[in-house]
Amino acid sequence: MPPLNYFVVESPDEVGRVAYERIAGDVLQDLDLIKVVDRLHIYVDPKMPIFVAAGLLRHMPRAIRIADFANVNRGENEIVLDIGDETYLAPLLQKLWSIYGKEHVDQPDRFTVVLPTGMAGDEDLDRLVVADPSETLYKDVIYALQYIAPEGFKVRRQYIRDGKFYYVASEDTLPTDIVETMVVPLFEKMGVTL
Predict the structure, then answer these.
(1) What share of the chain is helix, strand, coil (3-state, %, to 5)?
(2) What sections of 11-50 are H helices per DSSP?
(3) What is the pLDDT of residues 148-169, one digit of tens each?
């Protein structure tokens, strides 16, 4: 596993600590999250029982706009989108259909989409957001933490916003002050405030 800028697993059980360090590293690598997770601090105590993970993302992927993968050519009667990368074609069509109506969106081939001119919003077409990879990234990070947490720890609390995330899980009911007592100190150890 390429090193994160900060990666610590704490546990009163040394054998468990080593095992969770390996598990966390493998899961992050398998889900290709090593590139996006900058810092991660995990605390596991099987006797309490509690699992707490707090971390920071390296950078948030930016939203994908039409101009990122297509040329917008405006003519007198139509706007032609020349698709350079088909990766976002399906979400593009879904977005255009919802904005302009299916009957106004023509796709003569897989690299061309034609719209009539004079439709509301067509002046900002090249800035239209087609996909937001951060939404998928958030789900992937939470999924990874669910996978890393001990089996049976079904009571959980999770948070991910502005590049910071935490995940708390237990077999028992979580105290209402769990964020203040266990999560905030982990962020402080990483040199970050929540």
Answers:
(1) 40, 30, 30
(2) 14-30
(3) 999 999 999 999 988 899 999 9
For residues 182 and 163, give the distance between their C-alpha atoms in angstroms, rounded to a whole number.
19
Mean of the per-residue pLDDT values of the chain:
91
Sheet holding 164-170, edge to edge: 6-10, 37-45, 50-57, 164-170, 155-161
Q: Is 125 helix (H, G, I), strand (E, B) or coil?
A: helix
The C-alpha atoms of residue 71 and residue 66 are separated, in whole angstroms, by 8
Q: Are residues 137 and 115 in the same domain?
A: no
What whole-number distance in Å separates Cα of residue 155 and Cα of residue 149?
A: 11
Q: How far apart are CA 58 and CA 126, in angstroms?
A: 28
Give the pair of three-digit tokens for residue 157: 């609390």
Please report the pLDDT score of residue 120 as a whole number. 63
Domain that holds residue 126: 64-131
The 3-state DSSP class for residue 64 equals strand
The number of domains in the chain is 2
- Please name which of 95, 100, 138 lies closest in space to residue 116, comparing C-alpha atoms: 100
